[in-house]
Design brief:
By secondary structure, the protein is an alpha/beta fold. The chain contains five helices and seven strands; from the N terminus they run ββαββαβαβαβα.
């Protein structure tokens, strides 16, 4: 089965929106800078990371990227019951890990499968793969899939 990506959305350390991301990549810029979200002194000597500078949480960023992708895809004409959302996150908002997919689904009016994948660094890629599987099995006609993560101290510690 062929699957076609029809819309893109992005919120990253390089900026908000696909045009900002594309421009930064083509200009050779990176999003690595001093971390200011939390105290990094215990993690000496490295105090750098790729942090989103936009206000909000990973829920807000996931929603912004999903809306951009939805618009970029031309707002597909699909039955809400045939529209699925699959989100990948390591912990995101840990108190409500299934919430990433829920927030996006509610905003887009999706009534199909809502899944959140949490498989560490591969969460977003696995979400996209699971979205493809939903299409292949006929469980959905359109899938909004991707990932959202907010840098937090415990994750940062895991790399130091």
């Amino acid at each position: 089965m062929s699957v076609v990506v029809t819309g893109l959305g992005a919120v990253s350390a390089l900026g908000v929106g696909v045009p900002a991301l594309r421009a930064a990549i083509f200009a050779g810029r990176h999003g690595i800078r001093p971390v200011t979200r939390f105290d990094v002194t215990p993690f000496a000597p490295v105090h750098l990371g790729g942090c989103v500078e936009a206000p909000g949480t990973c829920f807000d960023w996931a929603l912004a990227a999903a809306r951009e992708a939805w618009e970029d895809a031309g707002r597909p004409d699909v039955s809400p019951r045939r529209l699925a959302v699959v989100a990948g996150t390591t912990e995101g908002e840990a108190h409500d890990i299934v919430g990433v997919a829920r927030v996006v689904a509610e905003a887009l009016g999706a009534e199909g499968p809502r899944l959140t994948v949490s498989t560490a660094c591969t969460s977003s890629a696995n979400a996209i793969g699971l979205g493809r599987d939903l299409l292949a099995r006929g469980d959905a006609d359109v899938v909004v899939a991707g990932g959202a993560e907010q840098l937090f101290a415990e994750m940062y510690a895991g790399f130091h």
